[in-house]
């Protein structure tokens, strides 16, 4: 079987698009899916990799990760608001992690030898083999990660009061690189730490948003 990014994208769409459509997502463009709620625009995305990134990660170019989160347009100045956000626009964002074990990664062409051969793995990247023989397996695991990790995170942060609670309790991970490698099946959350300028700004903005809508 000949595999490329287009085939992987089609496989992801065939499995995950129906799941997201049932949850109210109604805009789809490539590997991006969106829905609108009262306060937010929600996004689930499966970014692809260029050759340079894939070489650094140590996987095929058609392996993939996943991003998910919510965007509060009312927290942006009008001139900077976007209609359909990408992951770098999100107010609260996360990366679901796979549950599969895939000790197949060889960053920058590194080829471990002896008892270390093929033991490198990453929790944040679903490795698609060159021949595509594991494509169904990785797509099924990614769909499970969306259902069990991404959607609960999105649902929680769609509610401004819950989002405020998260801002007041979230402690950022200090060793991100380590968690990328080891935290299988555990959602990684990107958010400003308690007391940081961005954290305090978001708390003030969400509080004002709630007050204005009451």
* Class based on secondary structure composition and strand pairing: alpha+beta
Q: Would you count the extended β strands for me?
A: 6
Low-pLDDT residue spans: none
**Oligomeric description of these chains:** single chain
C-alpha end-to-end distance: 57 Å
* Succession of helices and strands: HEEEHEEHHHEH
Q: Gyration radius, to the nearest Å?
A: 18 Å
Strand order, biggest sheet?
1-2-3-4-5-6
Total count of domains:
1
Major beta sheet summary: 6 strands, antiparallel
Shape: globular
**Beta-strand content estimate:** 5-15%
Nearest-integer average pLDDT: 91
SS field, number of helical segments: 6
Instruction: State the helicity in percent bands.
Output: 25-40%
Structure report:
The protein has 214 residues and is of the alpha+beta class. It has six helices and six strands. The protein has helices spanning 5-22, 51-57, 135-158, 160-169, 176-182, 197-213; strands at 27-29, 32-36, 41-45, 67-71, 92-95, 188-190. The N and C termini lie far apart (57 Å). The model has no long low-confidence stretch (mean pLDDT 91). The chain has a six-stranded antiparallel β-sheet with strand order 1-2-3-4-5-6, with helices on one face. The radius of gyration is 18 Å and the shape is globular.
């Amino acid at each position: 079987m000949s595999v490329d990014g287009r085939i992987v994208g089609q496989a992801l769409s065939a499995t995950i698009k129906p799941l997201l459509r049932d949850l109210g997502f109604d805009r789809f463009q490539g590997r991006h899916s969106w829905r609108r709620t009262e306060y937010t625009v929600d996004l689930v995305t499966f970014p692809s990799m260029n050759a340079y990134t894939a070489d650094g990660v140590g996987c095929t170019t058609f392996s993939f990760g996943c991003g998910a989160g919510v965007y509060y347009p009312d927290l942006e100045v009008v001139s900077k608001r976007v209609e359909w956000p990408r992951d770098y626009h999100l107010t609260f964002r996360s990366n679901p992690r796979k549950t599969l074990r895939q000790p197949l990664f060889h960053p920058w062409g590194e080829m471990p030898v002896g008892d270390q051969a093929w033991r490198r793995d990453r929790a944040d990247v679903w490795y698609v083999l060159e021949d595509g023989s594991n494509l169904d397996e990785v797509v099924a695991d990614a769909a499970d990660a969306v259902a069990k990790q991404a959607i609960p995170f999105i649902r929680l942060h769609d509610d401004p009061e819950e989002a405020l609670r998260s801002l007041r309790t979230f402690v950022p991970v200090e060793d991100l690189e380590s968690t990328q490698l080891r935290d299988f099946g555990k959602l990684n959350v990107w958010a400003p730490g308690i007391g940081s300028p961005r954290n305090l700004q978001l708390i003030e903005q969400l509080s004002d948003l709630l007050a204005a809508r009451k």
